[in-house]
Amino acid sequence: MSIQSIAIDDEPSALDVISIHAAKVPELELCGCFTDPFRALEYLRNNRVDLVFLDINMPGLSGMELIGQLKCPPRIVFTTAYSQYALDSYEFEAIDYLLKPIEFDRFYRSVQRYQKQAANGNGVPRPAKPPHLFVKDGYKQVKLLFEEITHIQSEGNYLNIYTGSGRTVTRMTVSQMTEFLPEEMFIRVHNSWLVNIGHIDKIENNHIHIGAASIPIGEKYREGFYRRISTTDDR
After folding, report:
1. How far apart are CA 63 and CA 89, in angstroms?
2. What pTM does this model have?
3. Which helix H or strand E contains 56, and what residues bound it?
4. What is the pLDDT of residues 105-155, one digit of tens each?
5. Which of 87, 119, 151 is the last residue of a domain?
6. Distance (Å, whole) CA 17 – CA 24
7. Which own/partner contact pairs does 19-22 have at CB distance under 8 Å and 24+ positions apart?
8. Which domain holds residue 31?
């Protein structure tokens, strides 16, 4: 059986290099190349993929953010021009870490590593989905634990993500963020707001209070929100 793979990189020239290398490996089938990480995430959720060649440093959604959102992620070969990301890649049990420009012999060794792991035991182990999210705040990659996020507010194309210790600002929409958050913990209550149900202090006059924040419950979200929390109080 061939190895079903995809490549994700915001630089088309980097994808061209991977495509050329993949064409030289008969057992490797490169099923798609993506410059948009959100389209790649959708593909991964709906198709069988054994191996991903994944750029770490991409605008909007980093490679680590992307793979952290999948319940059953495929095996990963990280690719990047920045060697300082190598240590972070081990958290995701990556098969390999390729530094650009990628030479064919180094690329092929990554494929061989995948084959060796797949041949051992009853298949390739899948890393568990981490309980956190990496987001880009300026030039930093910030790690946020889901359980510590209290609420999220949208301002244009940016999100303010609040925790008990402060605020992180990242370029992303509410709809995009909703795809990544655990459904059992978070709910959208307004066009501009997401809340962590576990951090709600009280609900009064169609407003959610979390600490000092007062968050409006949008009309089109009210029925679903109150059903979710199973409240029977008069509103």
Report:
1. 10
2. 0.54
3. none
4. 999 999 999 998 888 743 444 444 567 888 888 888 888 899 999 999 999
5. 119
6. 11
7. 21/102, 21/104, 21/107, 21/108, 22/107
8. 3-119
